[in-house]
From TrEMBL:
Signal peptide annotation: 1-26
Domain of life assignment: Bacteria
Gene Ontology molecular functions: hydrolase activity
Known EC number: 3.1.1.-
Keyword annotations of the record: Hydrolase, Signal
Protein name, per record: Esterase EstB
Pfam families: Beta-lactamase
């Protein structure tokens, strides 16, 4: 039977934090709240954290790194963020806009002048803002996209060279809808954004994220690709259901999306580091690390651009019905009195959600090391339970 003993301390702690923000070390364990989710939703592991006014007031991580094994997870374990990476790519864009190297309406043609003659005429005019909001008119990820990923393994060069090659190949294709008129969730679009940033900076997207986000935030557990080390189970393995059972994937070619699409979703980090990142966003970037970008530009990334309709084929980790901004979305949920900022991410083997209530300066992050609808249901239910505990 579930008890309510965690709810009262959470409520009291919220009040104490408001009255005395110096109690950063007074944190509540969420482990007893998380435990029932393991059996109810068949999860190998689950982790969560709650941030109030920049302070992590509660957190926890329970379960095992690998299904059918007794290798307990910890709050310092790395979990995969999937498409929650897009918000980091979007923040890099905001930084680059403030530096005057690009603007929100910079076009693909302007960013890749040497490739322009080979581009479809309409693709040339697609803007950075349209790519960020998935309204470019390009198709959602399709077989052509998958074929290019496979072909990329035969190309030479570093990741920035491969992304430039992919832009060259992809942008010859016509748009499927007029730019700005329809939402189509596109990992290719964010890969193009990554290549744009690489063109103007002279560095790979991975270098930019490390230097401009991981290091300033002090995200010591952050990295790219599979969260575990090859040959080791030193982090929660991603899982999928095979023959009715959860199968763990060791680090390797099938353990994550190709590095090429990093700007769309290959970052991993601990639940505590993820919470710090989310909490900074909940305050419009107005707490340390300060001055990365102007608060109004953080707010711009959170401001809806286009409405996301119900999609029959929507996969866990992709935007639910609501509104999409730039690397973030806005959704209505039954447990919040007004729309909240949200994004989810999954590489099919892991799932991560970030929720921001900017009016109250609250952030909630939830993660698990398995993909699929049951995992998505679990993380959504957990977010609601944690949010209500703060009322």
């Amino acid at each position: 039977m579930k008890t309510t003993r965690c709810y009262v301390p959470a409520c009291l702690l919220l009040i104490f934090v408001f009255l005395n923000p110096q109690i950063a070390n007074s944190q509540i364990s969420l482990d007893s709240t998380l435990e029932p989710y393991l059996s109810e939703y068949d999860l190998p592991a689950i982790a969560a954290a709650v941030v109030v006014r920049g302070q992590i007031v509660s957190y926890g991580a329970v379960g095992t790194r690998k299904a059918d094994s007794d290798i307990p997870v910890t709050v310092n374990d790395r979990f995969h963020l999937g498409s929650d990476t897009k918000a980091m790519t979007a923040l890099l864009v905001a930084m680059t806009v403030e530096e005057g190297k690009v603007n929100w309406n910079s076009t693909i043609e302007e960013m890749f002048p040497k490739l322009a003659d080979k581009m479809d005429p309409q693709v040339r005019k697609v803007t950075l803002k349209q790519l960020l909001s998935h309204t470019s008119g390009m198709p959602a990820d399709n077989q052509d996209f998958m074929n290019l990923l496979k072909e990329s393994f035969d190309q030479e060069g570093n990741l920035d060279d491969l992304r430039y090659w992919m832009v060259d190949e992809w942008c010859k294709r016509p748009l499927v809808t007029k730019s700005g008129t329809k939402f189509a969730y596109s990992n290719m679009g964010y890969t193009i954004i990554g290549s744009m940033l690489e063109r103007v900076s002279g560095k790979t997207w991975e270098e930019l994220v490390t230097e401009r986000i991981f290091e300033p935030f002090g995200l010591e557990t952050a990295g790219f690709g599979c969260q575990s080390t090859p040959g080791k189970i030193d982090a929660p393995l991603g899982h999928s259901i095979k023959d009715g059972k959860a199968k763990g994937y060791l680090a390797g070619p099938n353990g994550d999306s190709p590095p090429l699409v990093g700007p769309a979703g290959t970052v991993h980090m601990s639940v505590l580091d993820f919470a710090q990142w989310a909490g900074w966003n909940a305050a419009n970037g107005m707490r340390p690390p300060c001055c990365l970008v102007k608060p109004e530009n953080v707010a711009k990334l959170h401001t809806p651009v286009f409405t996301v309709a119900q999609r029959k084929d929507a996969k866990p980790g992709t935007p639910p019905p609501g509104k999409y901004a730039m690397g973030w979305g806005e959704v209505e949920v039954e447990w919040a009195p007004y729309p909240v900022i949200y994004h989810g991410g999954s590489n099919g083997l892991n799932l991560a959600h970030a929720w921001l209530d900017k009016k109250r300066d609250i952030a909630i992050v939830t993660l698990t090391n398995i993909g699929g609808k049951k995992a998505d249901e679990a993380l959504r239910k957990l977010a609601g339970e944690l949010y209500k505990s703060l009322e």
